[in-house]
Amino acid sequence: MNLKENVFEGLRSIKGNLLRTILTALIISLGITSLVGILTAIDGIQSSVDNSFSGLGANSFDIRNRPAMQIRREGQKEKRFKNIDYRQASKYKSLFSSKGKVSLKTNVNFNAIAKHGSKKTNPNTRLIGIDDNFMELKGYKVSSGRNFSTHEYQHASNVCVLGVDVVDQLYEKESPVNSEIVVSGQKLKVVGILAKKGSMMGGGDDRVIMVPLETGRKMAMGRNLTFDITTSSTKVKNLDDFMEEARGVMRKVRMDPIGAEDSFSIDRSDSIAKSFENITSSLRIGGFVIGFITLLGAAIALMNIMMVSVTERTREIGIRKSLGATPFRILQQFLIEAIVICIIGGLGGIVLAIPIGNLIAQGISSGNASFIIPWVWMITGIIVCILVGLFSGIYPAFKASKLDPVEALRYE
To answer: Principal place where this protein is found (predicted)?
Structure first.
């Protein structure tokens, strides 16, 4: 028997035991679904993070009174500095605006409640004050209505722009533009609606009410606010040098002593995305290990089924050997059969894994993830299937190849 005949013989054997083949392939399919599905979901979540930060300029960074992303460890306090007040933020903007675009933002209220008629939002809406550069630098777009005018920025007008989640909670059929809402006891006229942005943290960028910066300061009613500063320039080739220049200006504004550490945090706008990319790399390793363990269980089940197959076909093996089949050809036949079953199961698992992985990613990222076709993981899955087939089939095939033809012919 040559290789081609062995392949066809393996396929005939699979067809002759169709139910057992389907059940065996299903075990492998579930293992591959677990492996490829987990890795697809992780890639989808990473795409959500990338989409969330895609609107940010490549040459932009943020100055805050706390790190952009800090993982707290046991016994350590979150690192925070003194608030960056309005005077300091404005002074930095006046000193550095000649080198790039500078935007100021303040969180007026993290738990604001907006009311319109008989409806109101959940107490998890962010009320933020922004200046005229904020939307451009942070990638926000107005889908209907308009942005704030220069007059509204300068004169603390009672106007606002709403995120889509706020609109969904306050309005049903009527258009929000030019209507009025009440936030923290203050009437605000809605002039625009933001395009859906999404967020890896569960849609927080859409649960927002934006007001002009001076309006936000007025609504804070004397509370001590902290201001976040974003700086961007399209002309800079080396962002690190540009950031160091901005660091020097901010140290001067904050009057940090020479030799002392910065009294503020300065981070690239995409630093969270880069940090999350490192996390997803670790998740991929964990996902691969979990999926591989699942496949190991499937491989053991397949090995057991192949052992049963060898026992059932002992007489058939004896006939083949008596007709001149070598032990190598017998070994090859059973290995091919195991590999073909694994590949069939693997293809079915990949078909299931792609929609399941993408659905999980969409659910976690609030619909902001891109649809992923994981070509790398699909190819990896097929290779793993072949390896599982070899692992599962090698012992039963070896056992079949070593059968004595005379004893095998006597088997009933």
So the answer is: membrane
